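[READ THE FOLD]
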Amino acid sequence: MKIIFICGSVEQGRDGVGDYTRRLCATLYKLGYSAGIIAINDSSATKAEAVTQKEDDINVEVYRLPSTLARKERYKLAQEWIEEKNPKWLSLQFVPYSFSEKGIPFSLASELKGLGKGRNWHIMFHELWIGMDDSSSIKEKIIGLLQRLIIKSMVFQLKPITIHTQTHIYKHHLKDLGYQSSLLPLFSNIPVYKEHKNSEKDDITFVIFGGIHANAPIKKFIKEASEYFSKIGKTISLITIGRNGKELDNWIHIWNSSGLSTKQMGEQSKEVISTTLSNADYGICTTPLVLSEKSGSVAAMHLHNLPVICVARNWNTGVQVSKKEISVMNYQEGNFHNMIVNANTIHKVDNSANKIAKLLLDSLKINIDG
């Protein structure tokens, strides 16, 4: 079996879907399958170029097509590369803003259809549309409506044999559009280098990895956490690591104002990130609960056996998702004690790249071979 993945950009360490796809390719290669990537709207590339990018000591074949190149020329070159490689499957890694700066890639469906004649299509929906949240602006809802129409056109034209997504809420929305999809959980881009936990220490360490979302109930969370652990003779501290964004300053200010220590590590190597996660006691996720399944940071924390607490704003689309289906504890005012007491009852998540790659392969085989 040969698979070519189609995504927007593949600049290493700068594009989450690109990083995900490259690691998936490397894992498939280790399992005995050949795979490659076309970055068809690469904002970091300066010229059309076939290169290799190293991932997990594997050289992954990548064809980078710069966004500055005329669209017609990009798809012509993509067609030639696909014909040369002659894959059995084409896998679209869909994020609307990967293929259009404004998030409205109107011609995407017809252009992709021309690439896939005689081949099987698979679509992985990393994102669907904006404006789902009840509090979204009119502009976001209008853009979201257009994005839904683009998705419907794409599924109609490509006729994918297999559709995957990462979250229960996206699966529900796809069903509302009339499409059956299966869950393909997100794996961690941070492998475990060395597990280490020191349960005898007096300091309880919370860690945030990656982007921090605004409007989380930080003050209430810190107050309850500090009071809970002080009763058992422990103090709490916060470590932040990775690219946290502009909301970081607000979090640091509030933690320090509460008399608690913080440490900002910034961007680090995968090994340092792994060590930091392994040494922490709890992970904090600021992505709204129903979207936590698509968080690479949460996936990394799960792989490092960290209990993850969601400290985030409410995000309501009118769709009810069972909290039992989500392996993250959701902080609400007054429930900190119950969360910690029940932390060990949250089911463990095996989201290694190896397992997810096998799930993908099994799904493709089942759907094509009967």
Observations:
- The chain has two domains: 2-187+353-369, 203-345.
- The chain is about 35% helix and 20% strand.
- Residues 138-158 form the longest helix (21 residues).
- The CA atoms of residues 71 and 256 lie 50 Å apart.
